[in-house]
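Mods, move this if it's the wrong board.
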Amino acid sequence: MKASLTATINAIAQHAGLEVSIAWHEPFVAAYNHPDHYAHVVDAAQTLGLSVQTLTEPMRWSEDVAEFLARWPGALFGIGSGEHHPQLHNPDYDFPDAILSTAHDLFCALVARHHGMAAPSAPQ
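Not the wrong board. Structure tokens:
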């Protein structure tokens, strides 16, 4: 997107006989998961029999959680609502209530692990 925008600006500037200078400012802090906390999330999800997908490239979310992760170790993860569901913060987004039980179980497993308790296992 940046390359396309830069090319368009340069073409307009050249046509108008102008010189341009472009600088980019990214106001959002990147969210970096702490390896230990990431491992806790993966372990809890797998214990519950949930599918875990690790991204191979950065997530496009700009979340405030990154501000916390810049100061304290933790992990940002998504529960997942499907590939064809509108993305969070889009005008057509509608929270999929069907993922509430998955989120509940995963967070309970993480809290149990944090407090040294046996995590619940996958539902039978």
